[in-house]
Structures are given as structure tokens and as C-alpha cells.
Design a protein that fits this description.
Number of helices: 4
Radius of gyration: 14 Å
Number of domains: 1
Structural class: alpha/beta
Number of strands: 6
Shape: globular
Distance between the termini: 33 Å
CATH class: Alpha Beta
Largest sheet: 4 strands, parallel
Strand order of the largest sheet: 3-2-1-6
Strand content: 15-25%
CATH topology: Rossmann fold
CATH architecture: 3-Layer(aba) Sandwich
Order of helices and strands: HEHEHEEEHE
């Protein structure tokens, strides 16, 4: 759904990344398109909690990939850790965050 729009967003987001940067990518089809659009970049570090992002980059010897630890949540193919997100955001120059859904609290 919205494949072309997601591809264009991924391309635009990847153009914001520069060589030598450390970026964080979460789960999502749009963030996967960001990864696919990084073809012309090298010398970056990608921090992710997502299996598919790591797999997309597994053949790229010119990109460092760091996968966060935690409990594997099959939904969205991501690793989950209570403290992981805050720690990763503190060291990365850019974060690309996918939104798989939200829920309003009824407190």
C-alpha cells in the first residue's frame, strides 16, 4: 500500500544522510525504503532494532551495522528493550522512525 510514496520518502530521507554519519532506523516499510536508497553512500553506521534492516545491509561491507539487543518481537521483525531507544537516540546523528500504529490512552 502506497509503495511509490514510501519509495519517494525513503529516497528523500536517504539524501539527508552524509558519509561518516551514524543513523538509527526502526521497523517499517518506509524505513526499509530508506535502507534501499542508501546505495550510493558508504562509510556510515546504521543502528537498528529491526531484522529486515540488518538483512538489507548484510552484503554491504562499506556500511557498519549495529543491531540492538533485547527480546525479539515477531510483529514488525524488531528487537525490543525497555531502555534501548533512548540510549540509541543519544548517539545517532539522525533517527528514521517508522510508525506502525498508535493508541490513545483512556486514562
Amino acid at each position: 500500500m502506497f509503495a511509490e510514496e514510501k519509495r519517494r520518502i525513503g529516497q528523500a530521507a536517504s539524501e539527508l544522510v552524509s558519509a561518516g554519519e551514524m543513523i538509527a532506523l526502526t521497523a517499517g516499510t518506509t524505513t526499509t525504503e530508506v535502507v534501499r536508497s542508501l546505495r550510493s553512500l558508504s562509510g556510515i553506521t546504521v543502528v537498528t532494532n529491526t531484522v529486515n534492516v540488518a538483512m538489507e545491509l548484510s552484503n554491504r561491507k562499506d556500511i557498519n551495522v549495529f543491531v540492538t539487543g533485547g527480546t525479539y518481537a515477531g510483529i514488525g521483525s524488531r528487537w525490543w528493550a525497555r531502555r534501548g531507544g533512548g540510549d540509541v537516540g543519544a548517539v545517532c546523528g539522525r533517527d528514521v522512525v517508522g510508525v506502525n500504529g498508535s493508541m490513545r490512552s483512556r486514562d
